[in-house]
Design goal:
This protein is an alpha+beta fold. It contains 8 helices and 7 strands, in the order αααββααααβββββα. It has a 5-stranded antiparallel β-sheet. The two termini are 46 Å apart.
Length: 225
C-alpha cells in the first residue's frame, strides 16, 4: 500500500470509531506500531485534527471531513455495478436517488477512475418492478422508517382476500419478489406479505415499538424455529 493510501485509510478508520488504538490501526493496515505513530504525526503536521496520544487512542475532532475523491478504478467500478444491480429491484424513488448519488460521485472522480467506471461492461437487464408494486414498495419503505401503521388489502397465493392492520418492520428482497415483514394486529403475530400481491394500501397513524413486536423480536423468533 502506498503511504498516501495508508494515510487516507488511517483517517477513515479513526473517523469511523469513537476511539481507535494504534494497535488496532497496525493490525488493520498490517504495519508496525512505529509506522502508525509516524503516520499519525505526519497527519497532525498536515493539519488533520487527530486528538489523543500513544498508548491511549486517537479520535477525530468533530466537523472534519474529506472530499470523496480517493476511489480506485476498481472501487469506482464496484459503485457502478452496485447501482446497476440495484436499480431494477428498487422502488422508483430510491432507484432515482441511487442514480443521483452515483452521478455526484462520478462527477468528482479523477478522469481515469471515472472512465473505468462508466465503461464497465456489467449490466442487470431484469424487468423493473411494475408501477403498482413500485409505488407500494415506496409507501411501505417510508412507513417503516416513519413508524406508521398500514392498512393492507391482500390477495394470498390461494386467492383469498383479507384486510389487515400491520406495523411494518422491514422490506426484504428475495430475488424475484419483495416482501413486507410486519406485526399483524389481526393475527397478533409476525407475518410476511408479498408486495406484488398487495391490492390496496393506506398509511395510518404512528406506532411505538413494543416488547415482542419489533424486528429484533421477529428475528429471534425465526432463529428459534
Amino acid at each position: 500500500m502506498r503511504r498516501a493510501d495508508r494515510l487516507f485509510q488511517i483517517v477513515q478508520l479513526i473517523r469511523g470509531r469513537r476511539l481507535t488504538t494504534a494497535d488496532y490501526l497496525a493490525q488493520r493496515l498490517e504495519v508496525s506500531m512505529r509506522t502508525v505513530y509516524r503516520d499519525i504525526a505526519a497527519l497532525a503536521q498536515q493539519g488533520v485534527p487527530i486528538e489523543g496520544e500513544a498508548g491511549v487512542g486517537y479520535r477525530m475532532r468533530a466537523g472534519f471531513d474529506l472530499p470523496p475523491l480517493m476511489f480506485s478504478k476498481q472501487e469506482a467500478q464496484a459503485l457502478v455495478a452496485t447501482v446497476r444491480l440495484a436499480e431494477s429491484r428498487l422502488d422508483a424513488v430510491l432507484a432515482r436517488q441511487a442514480e443521483n448519488a452515483l452521478s455526484k460521485i462520478l462527477a468528482v472522480l479523477p478522469l481515469d477512475a471515472r472512465a473505468a467506471a462508466e465503461s464497465l461492461a456489467l449490466y442487470a437487464p431484469l424487468p423493473a418492478l411494475d408501477p403498482q408494486t413500485s409505488a407500494h414498495l415506496t409507501t411501505m419503505r417510508e412507513a417503516t422508517e416513519a413508524r406508521r401503521k398500514l392498512k393492507v388489502g391482500y390477495l394470498d397465493l390461494g386467492g383469498v382476500r383479507s384486510e389487515r392492520i400491520v406495523r411494518p418492520l422491514a422490506c426484504l428482497f428475495w430475488g424475484p419478489v419483495w416482501t413486507l415483514s410486519a406485526w399483524c394486529e389481526l393475527r397478533e403475530d409476525f407475518r410476511s406479505f408479498r408486495v406484488d400481491r398487495v391490492e390496496t394500501l393506506e398509511v395510518l397513524d404512528g406506532f411505538r415499538d413494543e416488547p415482542g413486536k419489533t424486528l429484533a423480536d421477529m428475528n429471534r423468533q425465526r432463529e428459534d424455529c
